[in-house]
Amino acid sequence: MTVSEPPGSQPPGDxxxxxxxxxxxxxxxxxxxxxxxxxxxxxxxxxxAILGTAYTSAINTKNYGLAAVLxxxxxxxxxxxxxxxxxxxxxxxxxxxxxxxxxxRMARRLRMDSMRIARSQPGILRWRTLVALGFGLSxxxxxxxxxxxxxxxxxx
Length: 156
Hints:
Layout: H1 16-60, H2 64-110, H3 117-120, H4 128-154
């Protein structure tokens, strides 16, 4: 391992310790943000299941006002979680170019093509379309549930 020297006296590509630290930092950033993004989706599924069960119970007991409130809450939840998901994945995606570059440098120095993992894998943004579609459909379903509850509440 090479000893770190003061800035400017040695090119960063020659400092193994600095390169390793940069790769570790970049990976920690990327991994932390992608993990958080998928945790957000998992918690959203849990909250949606609870709200959906409560909505169904409210409809079955003919408590349409409560059902309308629950459907509106689900719509708001879908909007808030989707905004949060896109912010977190945007932060994760910002680390992808640096991760690719650092892995490229390490691969060249170690003469190991198998180190070039990030370049060959699709990033977190590959999920963007699927997640946007899922949140959009969820919000649409929630609005439909809200309309259904409102229509039932005003019908004799």
